[in-house]
Amino acid sequence: MAISSQSFSPSFILTRHDSTRPTRLPSRLTFTHFRKTQSPQFTASSRLNSSKSSDAGGSISPDNGDVTYELHHDLSPQRRRRGSPVFVTLPVKSVGREGKIWRPKAMMLSLKALAAAGVEGVVVEIWWGVVERNEPRVYDWRGYRELVMMACMCGLKVRAVLAFHQYGSDGDDLNGIPLPLWVLDEIQKDPDLAFSDRFGRRNTEYISLGCDILPVLRGRSPIQAYADFMRDFRDTFRPFLGTIITGVQIGMGPGGELRYPSLSLQKLNLAWSRELGEFQCYDKYMLASLNASARNIGKREWGNGGPSGAGSLIQNPERTEFFRNEGGSWNMPYGKFFLEWYSDMLLLHGERICREAETIFRGTEVHISAKLAAIHWHYVTQSHPSEVTAGYYNTFNRDGYLPILRMFSKYGFSMCCSCFEMQDIVMKKINPDCSPEGFLRQLLLDARLCDISLEGQNFSTNLDDDGFTQVLKMSKYYSDGIERRPFSFNFVRMDKNMFEPRNWDRFARFVRRMSDGNMFRARLNSVGNLRLKTTVAAQVGLLYQLYQYS
């Protein structure tokens, strides 16, 4: 049944009872259709067990009798005329390799705290390597379905990130999430399914886009495998799409970003601020494409590999033959040919996925988006080496992001990008060649030109008041004007530090400032000044401040 978008108000009734019984989630969603004079309602009810002492995971006061309260979430278009909604990205392993929610009681308490602070919703990364782990076309969504229901029970919206990449340094990382095991088996049989640099170093973060449309995955191409995954996600979560799940971000490369895995480090590190990156074009599929392109223009010698003289990973670009400002081969005929081919391959990969996603999610009323990498550490140089090795042909005399954003606009995609909290005055002390603000201004201007919605994100997880203020500044740079443009912010990510009293106060103030006074309010109907407190430091390190709501 189609649900009108005029008004959508879930009511969640939670009752405290015997703590020895397991927590149960609603097994069924009930949609009730009303006459035109009434507002469509969505109702879900559940009984949530809360322990009798905080030592056991949490408590709800008062201690005597059942505590019943309702969370009302109005999803009507008129609900938010001003301000920008804030979402919070959940921990990477909210659903572990075995498909189960990690610490469900702590997760529920965390979600309730986020709702009370006025957060619009949560970002949930749904990993290919978890859902389709063992066999192709065998999907296990159970943990993620339960997680979406938990968010729903707390009155939170959900943004789903379909993550087709590996998380962690390698497949043996116990804290990581590898690609599906059957995909790794295929890579072992054919190592060229993985990206490779000029030194022959393989990177299994993401399947090489050189074989996008080749049947290398047990009869399917990677694009077909991604499309099948998206289609099964749509069919599984259809009752939630457009109402609870309001956004779906499609992973397009390492880190979920449309880029090559050119950088050696995955974790945030100061080395990133000077890393040139390595061109990822040495697997046989990428080399075949490069060779064909070179033959088409009668330059066979240009098709044997990437540029020589590109330097080492961490080196001054002025000391390299390819990237130096004056006389660098990046600005000569061969360099232009190679960088155009390299960036066009990335653009083609993005378009293939955009086309599939737009077709699959058409009519679901979810907003689809994709993410670009915030690579800014050589932004003030002429050649922008760390950007071009990642596939962004963006130099002092060429806008490398505009073609990508035009593609996003063509297929109705929003764009996500990070580093909204970074300030030039701080970062230039580390690396004089960087400019996160300059990079972001270029991207935001291109987004305005292409008239696409924007999702901002933080790069660093430790934000102080200056960082939050910078986010507000850069968000207004994009959204302010005669015609207000849609902007939202994804805070990355929920962890134990977030709930430390000082950090939690700072974050809650930021949410209020972003929301401009129109934030979601949880009404605790029957309890007056109910204090919600939980201590789960031994398990997830979460400490909640006491909050009172009238």
UniProtKB/TrEMBL annotation:
GO molecular function terms noted in the UniProt entry: beta-amylase activity
Enzyme Commission number: 3.2.1.2
Catalytic function, reaction form: Hydrolysis of (1->4)-alpha-D-glucosidic linkages in polysaccharides so as to remove successive maltose units from the non-reducing ends of the chains
Region (Disordered): 40-80
BP terms from Gene Ontology: polysaccharide catabolic process
Amino acid composition bias (Polar residues), ranges on this chain: 40-49
Domain of life where this protein originates: Eukaryota
InterPro entries referenced in this protein's UniProt entry, alphabetically: GH, Glyco_hydro_14
Enzyme superclass (EC): hydrolase
Biased composition (Low complexity): 50-61
Family, per entry: Belongs to the glycosyl hydrolase 14 family.
Name of the protein in question: Beta-amylase
Organism field: Vicia faba (Broad bean)
